[in-house]
Design brief:
Strand content: 25-35%
Organism: Roseibium suaedae
Mean pLDDT: 95
Low-confidence stretches: none
InterPro entries: Acyl_CoA_acyltransferase, GNAT_dom
Largest sheet: 7 strands, mixed
Order of helices and strands: EHHEEEHEHEE
Strand order of the largest sheet: 1-2-3-4-5-7-6
Keywords: Acyltransferase, Transferase
CATH class: Alpha Beta
Protein name: Phosphinothricin acetyltransferase
Shape: globular
Number of helices: 4
GO molecular function: acyltransferase activity, transferring groups other than amino-acyl groups
CATH topology: Aminopeptidase
Radius of gyration: 16 Å
Number of domains: 1
CATH superfamily: Gcn5-related N-acetyltransferase (GNAT)
Number of strands: 7
Structural class: alpha+beta
Protein backbone atom coordinates (compact mmCIF):
# COMPACT_ATOMS: atom_id res chain seq x y z
CA UNK A 1 0.00 0.00 0.00
CA UNK A 2 1.39 3.38 -1.02
CA UNK A 3 0.18 6.65 0.53
CA UNK A 4 0.51 10.10 -1.03
CA UNK A 5 -1.12 13.50 -1.05
CA UNK A 6 -4.10 13.65 -3.37
CA UNK A 7 -3.84 15.69 -6.55
CA UNK A 8 -6.54 17.13 -8.79
CA UNK A 9 -6.45 14.12 -11.09
CA UNK A 10 -7.57 11.95 -8.15
CA UNK A 11 -10.96 13.67 -7.82
CA UNK A 12 -12.86 11.09 -9.96
CA UNK A 13 -11.44 8.27 -7.79
CA UNK A 14 -12.33 10.19 -4.62
CA UNK A 15 -15.86 10.63 -5.99
CA UNK A 16 -16.12 6.90 -6.74
CA UNK A 17 -14.97 5.93 -3.23
CA UNK A 18 -17.27 8.47 -1.58
CA UNK A 19 -20.32 7.48 -3.61
CA UNK A 20 -19.66 3.78 -3.02
CA UNK A 21 -19.80 4.50 0.72
CA UNK A 22 -23.02 6.52 0.26
CA UNK A 23 -24.64 3.62 -1.63
CA UNK A 24 -23.44 0.72 0.50
CA UNK A 25 -22.45 1.83 4.01
CA UNK A 26 -24.04 3.50 6.99
CA UNK A 27 -20.83 5.49 7.43
CA UNK A 28 -22.06 8.56 5.50
CA UNK A 29 -25.51 9.57 6.71
CA UNK A 30 -26.96 10.64 3.40
CA UNK A 31 -28.53 8.93 0.42
CA UNK A 32 -27.44 11.73 -1.92
CA UNK A 33 -24.50 10.87 -4.12
CA UNK A 34 -22.15 13.67 -5.00
CA UNK A 35 -21.34 14.91 -8.48
CA UNK A 36 -17.90 15.40 -9.94
CA UNK A 37 -18.40 19.15 -9.56
CA UNK A 38 -19.34 18.94 -5.87
CA UNK A 39 -16.44 16.61 -5.06
CA UNK A 40 -14.05 18.92 -6.94
CA UNK A 41 -15.36 21.88 -4.93
CA UNK A 42 -14.77 19.89 -1.71
CA UNK A 43 -11.25 19.01 -2.89
CA UNK A 44 -10.43 22.60 -3.85
CA UNK A 45 -11.77 23.97 -0.55
CA UNK A 46 -9.74 21.50 1.51
CA UNK A 47 -6.57 22.23 -0.44
CA UNK A 48 -7.10 26.01 -0.25
CA UNK A 49 -7.49 25.71 3.54
CA UNK A 50 -4.26 23.70 3.80
CA UNK A 51 -6.12 20.59 4.95
CA UNK A 52 -4.85 17.13 4.01
CA UNK A 53 -6.38 14.71 1.56
CA UNK A 54 -4.33 11.52 1.47
CA UNK A 55 -4.89 8.64 -0.92
CA UNK A 56 -3.93 4.98 -0.66
CA UNK A 57 -2.88 3.25 -3.85
CA UNK A 58 -2.65 -0.47 -4.43
CA UNK A 59 0.30 -2.15 -6.16
CA UNK A 60 -1.09 -1.23 -9.60
CA UNK A 61 -1.38 2.45 -8.70
CA UNK A 62 -5.18 2.46 -8.38
CA UNK A 63 -6.54 4.77 -5.68
CA UNK A 64 -8.40 2.44 -3.29
CA UNK A 65 -8.98 4.73 -0.32
CA UNK A 66 -8.63 8.22 1.05
CA UNK A 67 -8.55 10.09 4.32
CA UNK A 68 -8.93 13.72 5.25
CA UNK A 69 -9.69 15.97 8.16
CA UNK A 70 -11.38 19.30 8.59
CA UNK A 71 -12.76 21.53 11.31
CA UNK A 72 -14.82 19.78 13.97
CA UNK A 73 -16.89 22.91 14.48
CA UNK A 74 -16.62 26.34 12.90
CA UNK A 75 -16.36 28.49 16.05
CA UNK A 76 -12.81 29.66 16.84
CA UNK A 77 -12.76 27.87 20.19
CA UNK A 78 -12.58 24.58 18.26
CA UNK A 79 -9.75 25.67 15.92
CA UNK A 80 -7.30 23.06 17.25
CA UNK A 81 -9.81 20.19 16.99
CA UNK A 82 -10.27 18.35 13.71
CA UNK A 83 -12.73 15.65 12.62
CA UNK A 84 -11.44 13.06 10.21
CA UNK A 85 -12.86 10.58 7.72
CA UNK A 86 -11.33 7.49 6.10
CA UNK A 87 -13.00 5.53 3.29
CA UNK A 88 -11.72 2.46 1.45
CA UNK A 89 -13.16 0.58 -1.54
CA UNK A 90 -14.69 -2.82 -0.70
CA UNK A 91 -11.96 -4.81 -2.45
CA UNK A 92 -9.26 -3.10 -0.37
CA UNK A 93 -10.92 -3.38 3.05
CA UNK A 94 -9.04 -5.48 5.58
CA UNK A 95 -5.72 -5.06 3.74
CA UNK A 96 -4.32 -2.24 5.87
CA UNK A 97 -5.27 0.81 3.82
CA UNK A 98 -7.65 2.18 6.45
CA UNK A 99 -5.13 1.88 9.26
CA UNK A 100 -2.33 3.35 7.13
CA UNK A 101 -4.53 6.32 6.20
CA UNK A 102 -5.62 6.88 9.80
CA UNK A 103 -2.04 6.71 11.07
CA UNK A 104 -0.93 9.22 8.42
CA UNK A 105 -3.76 11.60 9.35
CA UNK A 106 -2.70 11.41 13.00
CA UNK A 107 0.89 12.17 12.00
CA UNK A 108 -0.15 15.15 9.86
CA UNK A 109 -2.47 16.51 12.56
CA UNK A 110 0.38 16.38 15.10
CA UNK A 111 2.80 18.05 12.67
CA UNK A 112 0.25 20.78 11.99
CA UNK A 113 -0.13 21.50 15.70
CA UNK A 114 -3.67 20.30 16.28
CA UNK A 115 -4.65 19.13 19.77
CA UNK A 116 -7.51 16.65 19.24
CA UNK A 117 -8.80 14.42 16.44
CA UNK A 118 -12.46 13.43 16.59
CA UNK A 119 -13.99 10.34 15.02
CA UNK A 120 -17.77 10.18 14.57
CA UNK A 121 -18.60 6.54 13.78
CA UNK A 122 -21.82 4.67 13.09
CA UNK A 123 -22.57 2.71 16.26
CA UNK A 124 -22.82 -0.59 14.35
CA UNK A 125 -19.35 -0.18 12.81
CA UNK A 126 -17.45 -2.20 15.39
CA UNK A 127 -14.54 -2.66 12.98
CA UNK A 128 -13.95 1.09 12.75
CA UNK A 129 -14.29 1.50 16.51
CA UNK A 130 -11.71 -1.27 17.03
CA UNK A 131 -9.33 0.28 14.48
CA UNK A 132 -9.56 3.64 16.20
CA UNK A 133 -8.94 2.04 19.59
CA UNK A 134 -5.79 0.35 18.18
CA UNK A 135 -4.62 3.81 17.09
CA UNK A 136 -5.15 5.27 20.56
CA UNK A 137 -8.64 6.77 20.30
CA UNK A 138 -11.01 6.53 23.26
CA UNK A 139 -14.80 6.29 23.14
CA UNK A 140 -16.10 9.45 24.77
CA UNK A 141 -19.79 9.17 24.03
CA UNK A 142 -22.66 7.51 22.24
CA UNK A 143 -25.59 9.48 20.86
CA UNK A 144 -28.50 7.05 20.41
CA UNK A 145 -30.73 7.24 17.34
CA UNK A 146 -29.48 10.65 16.17
CA UNK A 147 -29.32 9.60 12.50
CA UNK A 148 -31.05 7.38 10.00
CA UNK A 149 -30.18 5.48 6.85
CA UNK A 150 -31.46 2.41 5.04
CA UNK A 151 -34.62 2.49 7.18
CA UNK A 152 -32.73 2.23 10.48
CA UNK A 153 -32.11 4.61 13.36
CA UNK A 154 -28.38 5.06 13.81
CA UNK A 155 -26.33 5.67 16.93
CA UNK A 156 -23.25 7.89 16.69
CA UNK A 157 -20.15 6.85 18.60
CA UNK A 158 -17.77 9.71 19.34
CA UNK A 159 -14.09 8.95 19.83
CA UNK A 160 -11.18 11.30 20.46
CA UNK A 161 -7.42 11.18 20.36
CA UNK A 162 -5.34 13.76 22.23
CA UNK A 163 -2.45 14.61 19.93
CA UNK A 164 -0.20 16.33 22.47
CA UNK A 165 0.19 16.76 26.21
CA UNK A 166 -0.26 20.54 26.43
CA UNK A 167 -2.08 21.52 29.60
CA UNK A 168 -3.06 24.93 28.20
CA UNK A 169 -3.89 26.07 24.69
CA UNK A 170 -1.21 28.06 22.91
CA UNK A 171 -1.68 31.83 23.07
CA UNK A 172 -0.61 32.37 19.45
CA UNK A 173 -3.14 30.13 17.71
Amino acid sequence: MHLRDAIGEDVPALLNIHNDAVRTLKAIWTDRQETLESRRAWFDARKAAGLPIIVAEDESGQVVGYGSFGPYREKEGFRLTMEHSVYVLPEARGLGAGRALLERLIEVARQDGYHVLVAAIDGENTGSVALHEKCGFKVVGRLPQVGMKFGDWLDLVLMTLLLDDKTNPPADR
